[in-house]
Design a protein that fits this description.
Length: 366
C-alpha cells in the first residue's frame, strides 16, 4: 500500500450531509451553525478512519456547492444579482437544472485571504490518524462557468491579464494553505472532462471561446498556479462529467484532451470518472507518463447498488493494459454530495461503497 497520496483506496471529497446538519443549515446561523458543522465533521472523519481510508476530508459539510463557495470568495469576483447560470443535467428519468447565480469579474482578481483556511485547520486538528485532504475548484472553473461575458472589459481589456491574475491568486492560495500544514490538495475540474463532449465544445464556441484549444489554455493556467507549490505537498485533480442529485451533464471518453492532459498537466495524480460507458474506455491512459498516479473512479456515487469486487478487479486489470498497475489507485467516480442536496443513496450505502474500495484495494495491492 502507498504511504503518500493519492492512496490505493481514496475518495474524491464530498460526502452526504447528515439529516441533523441539513436541519441545522435551515435553522441556525453564525457560531451555532459552525458548532453543528464541527460535530458532524468530527463524526464523518471518525467514519473515514474507521473504514480504513488513509486520508479524510470534511465532506465539504460547510459548503452549499463544491465550487461556487470558493469562487465567490476570490477578490474581484461577485454574484450577478439579476442573472443565473443554467446547467442541464440528465438521468434515467429525464432532465433537471442547476441554476446558481452567475458570476461577474468586476475588479482585478486577487486573494484577500486564504480561502477555507479555518475549515482546513479544523480538519487538520481533527484528522490526527490520517492525512487531511482539502478540495477546491480549479482555476478553469472560474472561466468555464461564465466565459468572456462574465469578465468586465473595463477591468481586463487584455484577457491575458485576467489569466495572469487568476493563476497568481491561486498560486497564493496554494502557498498559504500549504503554510497551514496542507500536504494533500485537490483541484476539482469538470471542464477538462466536459471538453471531451462535442456538444459542450459547440456551446463554448457559440459564446466566443476557442473550444478546440481551451483545454490547452486551462492546462497552462493550472500549471502556473502550481509552479511554486510547497515542497512536500501532493496535488491531484479530479475530473468528472457533472454530478448533481445523481445526474450528469456531459458524455465522452478522455480521448480529446488525453495527450495534453496527461503529458503536460503538472499534478501528481488524476482522479478519473470511469463508472459507466459515458466515460469511454481506458485507452487514453496510455498517455500517462511514469511517476504519475491514476485513481480509477470505478465505483459510482449516483446509486446505492454495490459493485462486485470481481468486476472492480477485472476493470483494474483492463486499465493496467495501458498504465502500470503500480500507478493505479481506486476511488468512487465523484463525490457523494457535490451540492448540499446530495445524490440519491443512503449514508449506509455511501460508507459501504467506501469500505468496498478499501477492501478491494487491499486485495489487489496488499
Amino acid at each position: 500500500m502507498r504511504t503518500s497520496p493519492p492512496f490505493r483506496a481514496d475518495h474524491v471529497g464530498s460526502l452526504l450531509r447528515p439529516p441533523a446538519l441539513l436541519r441545522a443549515r435551515e435553522t441556525l446561523t453564525g457560531d451555532a451553525l459552525r458548532e453543528a458543522e464541527d460535530e458532524a465533521i468530527r463524526e464523518v472523519v471518525r467514519r473515514q478512519e474507521e473504514i480504513g481510508l488513509q486520508s479524510a476530508t470534511d465532506g465539504e459539510f460547510r459548503r452549499a456547492s463544491w465550487h461556487m463557495d470558493f469562487i465567490y470568495r476570490l477578490g474581484g469576483i461577485g454574484q450577478a444579482t439579476d442573472e443565473h447560470i443554467t446547467v442541464r443535467f440528465h438521468n434515467e428519468q429525464g432532465d433537471i437544472e442547476f441554476t446558481p447565480a452567475a458570476l461577474r469579474v468586476h475588479e482585478r482578481i486577487r486573494l484577500n485571504e486564504p480561502i477555507f483556511a479555518d475549515d482546513f485547520t479544523f480538519l487538520r486538528d481533527t484528522a490526527t490518524k490520517v492525512v487531511p485532504k482539502l478540495t477546491i475548484p480549479s482555476p478553469s472553473m472560474v472561466h468555464y462557468r461564465g466565459g468572456p461575458a462574465a469578465i468586465d472589459p473595463a477591468v481586463y481589456p487584455d484577457v491575458e491579464e485576467f489569466w495572469r491574475d487568476l493563476s497568481a491568486a491561486y498560486a497564493e492560495q496554494v502557498r498559504r494553505i500549504g503554510a497551514l500544514g496542507c500536504t494533500y490538495l485537490q483541484f476539482d475540474d469538470t471542464s477538462l472532462a466536459y471538453l471531451n463532449d462535442p456538444a459542450q465544445r459547440a456551446e463554448l464556441s457559440s459564446r466566443g471561446d476557442d473550444a478546440e484549444h481551451m483545454h490547452l489554455r486551462y492546462i497552462k493556467q493550472i500549471n502556473a498556479a502550481l509552479a511554486a507549490k510547497p515542497a512536500g505537498m501532493t496535488i491531484t485533480t479530479h475530473m468528472c462529467r457533472g454530478n448533481f442529485r445523481s445526474s450528469w451533464a456531459a458524455s465522452g471518453g478522455y480521448d480529446f484532451v488525453a495527450e495534453a492532459l496527461f503529458g503536460e498537466l503538472k499534478v501528481d495524480g488524476f482522479f478519473l470518472e470511469f463508472d459507466d460507458e459515458r466515460s469511454g474506455g481506458f485507452e487514453p491512459l496510455r498517455f500517462v507518463p511514469p511517476g504519475k498516479m491514476v485513481v480509477l473512479g470505478l465505483v459510482t456515487t449516483k446509486r446505492g447498488e454495490l459493485e462486485s469486487k470481481d468486476t472492480l478487479k477485472r476493470r483494474i486489470d483492463e486499465a493496467a493494459k495501458f498504465v502500470d498497475l503500480d500507478q493505479i489507485c481506486l476511488s468512487p467516480q465523484c463525490g457523494f454530495s457535490s451540492t448540499v442536496e446530495g445524490n440519491q443513496l443512503t449514508a449506509d450505502e455511501q460508507f459501504a461503497k467506501l469500505r468496498l474500495i478499501v477492501e478491494t484495494a487491499q486485495e489487489v495491492w496488499g
